[in-house]
Design a protein that fits this description.
The protein is of the alpha+beta class and about 325 residues long. It has three helices and twelve strands. About 45% of the residues lie in helices and about 20% in strands. The strands form two sheets. It has a six-stranded antiparallel β-barrel. It has a six-stranded antiparallel β-barrel with strand order 6-7-8-11-10-9. The radius of gyration is 49 Å and the shape is elongated. It starts with 10 loop residues before the first helix and ends with a helix.
Length: about 325
């Protein structure tokens, strides 16, 4: 192997220099040839030797170009599919966001519609019975398991006082029992300590609507000679001067006449369930027309007298029977 002046082997380096020189010469030749061909090709008007050569080159390379296009086609399809998939994902995300917004908006509109319906019901009740009242909203339910009460967002600052009747759009739901400056507690008619002077709307038979520990309603003090049927509406009688006369309380669901009893056992279902109470009216005062009339009071007294007489007759009969034995 040839050596340089320092005795080192310079064969590979010399070989690399030669290759580099040859590459440079080839590049210059190809560049010059390209310029010449470009010049002559520009001067030809669609015919000539260069055009012929170029056409032949295209014929020769066509199979290779077709094959390359065929090979690249799946990759182009994958690229398009990926682009479409990305676009579809973005579209789905946009549609999902729009759907969530529309769902929320629909819920808002539905809630607003239901609120408007309830408020319209309160206005209708207020107009029908000419109630002197203040609107309030229920903000909480009972805080214990042995009472049926709700709390409203109006108190003494709004003219609310203890003992005032409270209604929803269907009728009476209770009576205020505690009042603070900005809230009040309402005892519901289903509470076992609740008692409302009531009467059967059709027959005008009078009694007392009492709550119970189970939450059911019982119409008591209605004598057995009165006509009461399932489906009858029970309304306030106005006796006592607390509740306006004629406000709906509930519907009779069962009537039982026990042998030997002077009174009917009457079960009443409230017009609306407790969980549906939201907006209410607090009756702040009664007009003269909303109080029981003298005839109502006389009728109630006569009913009490009749029941007392019937009870006395039953007692006397029982005593006579016992004596004869």
């Amino acid at each position: 192997m040839p050596r340089n002046l320092f005795g080192l082997n310079n064969g590979p380096a010399q070989f690399r220099r030669k290759n580099s020189d040859n590459g440079m010469r080839l590049a210059l030749v190809l560049t010059a040839l390209s310029l010449v061909l470009f010049t002559f090709s520009g001067r030809e008007s669609g015919s000539g030797p260069l055009t012929t050569i170029r056409g032949g080159f295209q014929v020769i390379t066509t199979p290779a170009r077709v094959t390359g296009s065929f090979v690249m086609q799946p990759f182009q399809g994958l690229s398009n599919a990926f682009a479409n998939l990305t676009a579809d994902q973005e579209t789905l995300s946009e549609l999902k966001s729009e759907n969530e917004q529309l769902t929320a908006r629909n819920a808002e509109l539905e809630e607003a519609e239901q609120t408007a319906t309830r408020l319209q019901g309160l206005l209708n009740l207020q107009d029908t019975y000419d109630l002197q009242s203040t609107a309030a909203r229920i903000i909480s339910g009972s805080t214990d398991s042995w009472s049926s009460t709700v709390t409203i967002d109006k108190g003494s600052l709004s003219g609310i006082a203890v003992g005032m009747p409270v209604t929803d759009s269907a009728g009476v739901i209770g009576q205020t029992i505690e009042v603070s400056a900005s809230s009040a507690t309402v005892r519901l008619i289903s509470d076992e300590n609740s008692s409302v002077a009531a009467m059967v709307q059709s027959s005008r038979a009078q009694g007392m609507l009492n709550g119970s520990a189970e939450g059911s309603l019982q119409l008591t003090m209605v004598t057995s000679d009165k006509t009461v049927s399932v489906g009858d509406t029970i309304v306030t009688s106005g006796l006592g001067g607390i509740f306006p006369k004629g406000l709906p309380l509930g519907t009779v669901t069962n009537v039982t006449h026990n042998a030997g009893s002077s009174y009917l056992d009457i079960v009443v279902e409230p017009l609306v369930s407790t969980e549906n109470y939201e907006e209410v009216l607090v009756v702040t005062s009664l007009t003269e027309d909303q109080q029981a009339t003298a005839d109502d009071i006389s009728s109630a007294d006569a009913q009490d007298s009749s029941s007392t007489s019937t009870s006395d007759d039953s007692t006397s009969s029982s005593t006579a029977d016992a004596s004869s034995e």
